[in-house]
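Sequence in, structure out. Go.
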Amino acid sequence: MAADRTPRAPHEQYRLADIPVDDAWVRKNNESLAEVRRLQWSAGILGVIVLAAAVGLLVYSGFEAWAWIVAAMAGVFAIGCLAMIGYIPRKMGSMQRTYATSELVPAIIAEVRPRGVTLLALVDRAVDRSAGSLPALVARTCGPIAGHEARVGERVPCVAVVGNRSARGSDNLYQFISPMPVAWATSDQAALRRLEKEIPPGEWERLRQNLDRVKDVSAVPTSLLPLD
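Output:
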């Protein structure tokens, strides 16, 4: 009986789903993974440029003492940049784990643009749901999504990738939430239909009723707009 009174961990309160993840499909279609690669390239290029500048400064100064000090500082910064190449993907974790541990949420195509679409998703900012729900709208722009029509109103099951929780740890809020389409993980249409049905109809309807607020959501710096 004591075990029944033990509060569940926040993560266990979320709606998780059985999502098949095709690694080859992810590498080809998942824009979040592409963003990680761009960050890795940026960190590597910046590190190399800073190291080259430090060496150039030493040679130009004739290896003066002050130049060694500046070069040492630049070297530390460059090493930090290069270390980020390995740290970024480890921090993010594998896509299998991300899909398995992120909450299944509804998203709808709210805008169709020349080179892609804007998704509007209904998410919950609360870390610990036993303290109450904190619904919000979040927007994300992306390219065309394989497996979905590029039309306003198209339902796109997603997982909510969360992060940047308050440093105080007492706000019970996620400051960053990004919807990641399930269609970036698999081309299995049967799985997409199953996951769409696992989201309650009331959530899809609430999201549909707020489609006209997509510009308001996009105007917020975090693209995250709390709902009343």
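Check: The two ends are 37 Å apart (CA to CA). The first strand starts at residue 103 and ends at 105.
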